[in-house]
Amino acid sequence: MLEPRIRTHTLASLAVLLAVSTSLAQSSDPLQTSPGTPPVSTTDENAPVVLLRKSPRVSEVEFEVLVGSLGMVNQNGSVFWRLGPTTFSMPLIQKGTSADLDASFGGARVWIEGKELPSEKLSIVMQPAISGATRIEVGMPSVNCSNIRVNVRARMQLWKIEIDEAAARKIAWPREWPESTRPFLAEDEFIHPSDPLITAFVAKTTKGNLRAVTPYDAAKELVLATLKSLKGYSAQYSLRGWNGSIRGLNFGGTFSNAAMLGSGTAIDAALSCVAVLRNAGIPARVVYGGTRENGAIRGGERSSSTTYISWCEFYLPTAGWIPFDPAFLKSRVNGTMDLSKPWKGFGNLDWLDEWVPYSYAPIPRGSNCADWPALWGWSGPSVGWTPQNMVNNNPQSAITHVTLRFASRGHGKVNQEPAPRLP
Question: Could you tell me the CA-to-CA distances from 240 to 107, 244, 245, 249, 368 in Å, in that order?
Fold first, then answer.
């Protein structure tokens, strides 16, 4: 859907960005060598616990989207769509590194022109997606209307995450990655690890020394180098529309990880880190989520409104998906960051109990977005809007308003447990 636009931007910028890549890479030190300790066994039964979930919170969460029409005007002056049977795909992480979904709680509701559609007219199905993710598919009948509102409600247990870095640094490269992690090595609509820019950046940063260190050490240095390369930067996660409402994810405007060597947003930084790690042969993914209104962010800072958030994870054999927060690390890359010591924000994220994970993709696979990628999607006859329609001012494009709601329901019953090794 976005491929032609991405590639046009990348090729046009290739010469300039490769020059920047070479300059930055030449000023970087080679990957540091891990301590001379034999690697631990990479079999699950013998491996130590590396990643801990701690201090869980229980939250009721809602994801709501209101789609307003910019369609054709009929004789009475009203704006409307003629939609065939339509399915809304709403995102949720069923079981992730820092969250568990309570499948016994929640549901979906739909309003047409402000009037709620009876539940018997809806088809609501929870579909498994990739690697612990799921989606709620809400099917509705044909309708003529100018606005649709869809609400999904769920209950989740959210955890702080803590890593034993000494143990993580001893885990060796596997002979092959688990099958469920391999999609997170591949090309994706918003992530292009085989882009020549990414390949050149990884080669220059590692200086051919990639496998001389363990995957944890390699990931740590590659993330640091990527964030240092991002000069112009905006920490805003949400693109907002009228009255400050959330319209979608705040990409830098190109939908391409090629922005990693120039400028971009917090979303671009996450995409860039993942593209670099995948190019280096380490499974990695972006986690797209939301923050609690006026909730704690990164152990002390406060958010002024509900917003999207993003962070990243890379897979470490026998340990699980290791989370890291590019935006938090970006705020510290100009200081001293000793690669041999643990970092807050890399494996140690004591604020994930305040962040709700929704999806590993900006748009559900098999769905279209409305005017901008916003985690949800829809499909069916007459539903085919993409971000290009917004750019081209297509009169049939739709305007999205997303609302994220969070309500605390106390603490979880188990204070501490190992994180899932392969959610």
Answer: 27, 5, 5, 9, 20
Q: 3-29+159-358 has which CATH code?
A: 3.10.620.30
Tell me how far CA of residue 121 lies from CA of 97, 105, 268, 379, 393, in angstroms. 36, 21, 40, 17, 33
Residue 336 Cα distances to 25, 75, 333, 340, 343, angstroms: 18, 66, 7, 12, 11
Q: Which residues of 346-373 are buried (b: 16+ CB within 10 A; e: fewer)?
A: bbbbbbbbbbbbbbbbbbbeebbbbbbb
First-residue to last-residue Cα distance in the chain: 29
CB 1 within 8 A of CB 189: yes
CB atoms within 10 A of CB 399: 18
Q: Please give the radius of gyration of the chain, using alpha carbons only, rounded to the nearest integer.
A: 22
Residues near 231 by Cβ (< 8 Å), separated by ≥ 6? 262, 263
Dump pLDDT digits (tens) for 193-250.
998 889 999 999 999 889 999 999 999 999 999 998 887 778 889 888 877 889 999 8
**Angle made by CA atoms 275, 133, 326, in degrees to the nearest 5:** 35
**Dihedral sign for Cα atoms in the order 320, 293, 267, 136:** positive
Spatial CA neighbour of 253 closest among 243, 242, 263: 263
Average pLDDT, stretch 307-322?
95
Q: What is the spatial distance between Cα 326 and Cα 345, in angstroms, rounded to a whole number?
A: 8
Q: Can you tell me whether residue 229 is helix, strand or coil?
A: helix
- Other C-beta atoms lying within 10 Å of the C-beta of residue 25: 18
For residue 327, pLDDT over 80 is answered with yes
Cα gap 260→32, rounded to integer Å: 23
Alpha carbon distance 5, 9 (integer Å): 6
Give me the residues paired with residue 349 across strands: 161
pLDDT at 16 over 60: no
For residues 80 and 71, give the distance between their C-alpha atoms in angstroms, rounded to a whole number.
6
pTM (2 d.p.): 0.85
Highest mean pLDDT among 20-34, 110-124, 239-253, 312-326: 312-326
Sequence spans of domains, the chain: 3-29+159-358, 58-122+135-155+369-406
